[in-house]
Amino acid sequence: MSLSKPLSARRLVPALFPLAHADAASAAASRRERRRDAFVATPPIPAPSPRAVRLAEPLPTLAPSRLALHNRILALLTAPEPDLAEAALLTRHALHSNCRPSSYTCAAVLAALLRARRLDDFFALHRFALQAAVPPTAATHVLYLSALAARRLPDAALHHLRLLARPGSPVPPSPTAYRVVVECLVADHGRLADAVQLKDEMLTSGFVGPDPKVYSLLMTGFVAAGDGVKAVELYQELKDKIGGEPVLDGIVYGSLMKAYFLRGMEEKAMECYKEVLGAESEVKFGAESYNEVVDALGQNGRLEEALKLFDRMLGEHDYPLRIAVDVRSFSVMVHAYCAAGRFKDAIAVFRRMGEWKLVPDVAAYNNLIRHLGRNKLIGEVEVIYNEMAECGVVGDEETYILLMEACFNVDRIDDGICYFDKMAELELKPDATAYHKIVDGLVGFSMPDKAQEYFDQMKEKGISPSISTYETLLKAYVADDRLDDAAKVAKGILLDENVVFSNEMRELFEGALRGDGREDDIARFYEDMEREKAEAEARAAEEKARAEALAREERERRRAEAAAKDEAAARASAAAIEAILAHKRKTENGTEVPAPDANSLDGGFLSKLGIRSAGEDAVQGTPLSTETKQENWQGRW
User: Fold this and answer.
1) What is the pTM of this model?
2) Which burial class, exposed, middle or buried, applies to 434 when counting CB atoms under 10 A from its CB (0-12, 13-18, 19+)?
3) I need a surface site. Which of 416, 529, 567, 590 has the fewest CB within 10 A?
């Protein structure tokens, strides 16, 4: 028995059976209508545009093979002896394989290269990843900005950050990106006006709100420039931006206290210190915030308060739940002890880092070496340097410049030169500032010829000398009455487009020539310079034209090679087609067989039955005559 309702019931109660139909035609029409409605309701998804911005995929969504590659590279980076070269090489090879590294894998390798100060490898891998279409993340951009800052390229970092802050940016800038660029402008280059302008752009962009860290960096810059009033104004601006409420991030109060000390308002500074660090204070302090306050106290004669605060930091420190001290905390205390002349205590507190499971980095060693070297404690400097080597910390360019200066301070010239030359053995690359320091030091010891050697070495390596280096050599040669050598230095200044021959140096040089009775040489010198400039410009124009001609010839040669290859390919294709057609025609003409007729078909059939056909011996296709047929029939009968 059927379990469905009778047809009459379905017709009588249509509301109970909305999908019931009277006949098959109406059911088919209803199905077609439903399909058409479903097709309209779900339009096809268009294919993604090749120009669409690709974003980094979340790490949990990666395939197991890509996660395994990520963990393998992290193992290389976090090993007791990290193999950065192998990690970078593995990442580059994987970028063009079936198991591509993710954006986070590339960022981990880039961060390791940046920490190791291997900037050339960093930029090479970063460029390779971008060319391989690896989507950059906010962390990638921060690392790139940090590398530009380490390479001392503030304009490039500023330009890149402004590109990120454009409206509709797929990866908007983070607060850390602004902090990196502001710190580069303020701490490394003293460009306070550009930093303030960038802060205003940050507020108007809408991506980042008023960041206390950015304001703290600006306040520190103005304090270092001796403008405590502007630092206090920035603090008041920050309070206004957050609605007039007290700033609950302790990062700004160290800079604020320094501004008060700079203006002679010690009571105001200590009042601020007690207010924000009191028992009822709601201000949040971390290791970095504490460090700024300790530094403000230690540099302004408040060593006892700094020691008490440092002990409080050690008491609050509970790694990893609560991080109240870091490596810089001990460096700040070293700074405070050295400011008070207590160098043994500075060395002792530096060596206490191991008690708190902290490993001093190269910056911490450089800080201690700097203070000891300035105070002519060369014995302690060498002890610290040996401890640094025993701990496996590799010195950078700044380390060896500080060692050189420490030796110069105690008249150990040869040892200082050896430390500078050691950088070449370690494949370190001193910049123009480093060369200026050795040139200035050697000139101070009345060794201009030795200084000239390092000046020439700098130019051979493609490093542009600073105007300070030129002026140091010029003054040394003028003081020694070596005017011909002074003229060569002056010529170098005038031919160098990166520096300007100041009026002071011009008057010094011309006055030396007049004092030696060589007034006529002044006009001749400038005439020769104009002629050499014109010749240099002509040579540059000629070289440029030659380079353009060579480039044009190279382009034409490549076009000709490409056209020849295309023509050869076309000829080969035509020859192949002709060969195929010729073979086909030859096959058709040589093995052509006539179509079988009825007689041949019948003969084949009768032969299978054992019967001989009458026309079997005749030519196929030739009909038999009537007489032959009759004779055959008569003979049979």
Assistant:
1) 0.72
2) buried
3) 590
